[in-house]
Design a protein that fits this description.
The protein has about 210 residues and is an alpha+beta fold. It has 4 helices and 10 strands, in the order H-E-E-E-E-E-E-E-E-E-E-H-H-H. The chain has a 5-stranded antiparallel beta sheet with strand order 1-2-9-4-7, with no helix packed on it. A 5-stranded antiparallel beta sheet has the order 6-5-8-3-10.
Length: about 210
């Protein structure tokens, strides 16, 4: 009997910690049904409707990788709701360069073509997978990850869901090479010379 009680107690403690962790892993909770923007008096169904995705899935493949977001900035009704959304469009051979989302995991769903995806954990281990139409993949919160359409002939499209209305995106190439970090520091960090660093910067417009 005591053993059963102890098991239930341990389960309860673990459940409480799990619920607490999940709550902390998303956006801060709100004390109202939804957040009304300042200086906004007339709220109706239009406030909760986002039309920015109309035609996205019917459009032809873009010449370069393109992301269409529905986050808090684009869709204010998401403020406080801990959800976000994006459509990722890849031309043949297109790539979404290594990047991170500091405030959310990413749940990706392939709806056209195929994608090679991967992420690197904090032990510097690379996890990769080739996804086909209908496959899903999760990129853990804050870890560097990428997506690549390896097909040289056909485009690919994926839909991503986030557990935050403002997941944030930090591009590894842009944050490293276009933000003013000293060329000498980068050359030493990447074990190369300043000329190579400057060439990379020029290619990224830095």
């Amino acid at each position: 009997m005591a053993s059963t009680v102890l098991k239930h107690l341990l389960f309860f403690i673990v459940a409480v910690f799990a619920i607490s962790w999940i709550a902390q892993a998303s956006d801060p909770d709100i004390l109202t049904d939804f957040i009304v923007p300042e200086n906004s008096n007339a709220i109706n169904g239009s406030f909760f409707t986002f039309t920015g995705m109309r035609g996205v899935l019917q459009s032809s493949a873009p010449p370069n990788f393109k992301v269409t977001k529905a986050g808090m900035a684009e869709f204010p009704a998401l403020n406080g709701q801990s959800v976000g959304f994006a459509v990722l469009q890849f031309p043949a051979g297109g790539v979404n360069p290594p990047h991170t989302h500091p405030r959310s995991a990413e749940h990706l769903f392939v709806v056209e073509g195929s994608l090679v995806v991967g992420f690197v954990d904090t032990a510097n281990k690379l996890y990769t997978q080739t996804l086909q139409l209908g496959d899903m993949f999760v990129f853990p919160k804050g870890l560097v990850h990428f997506q690549h359409n390896a097909d040289a002939q056909e485009p690919a499209t994926a839909i991503s869901a986030f557990g935050s209305a403002n997941a944030g995106t930090v591009s590894v190439p842009l944050s490293v090479f276009t933000t003013g970090i000293d060329d000498g520091i980068l050359a030493k960090s990447f074990k190369t010379d300043v000329a190579t660093i400057q060439q990379i910067k020029a290619g990224l417009g830095g």
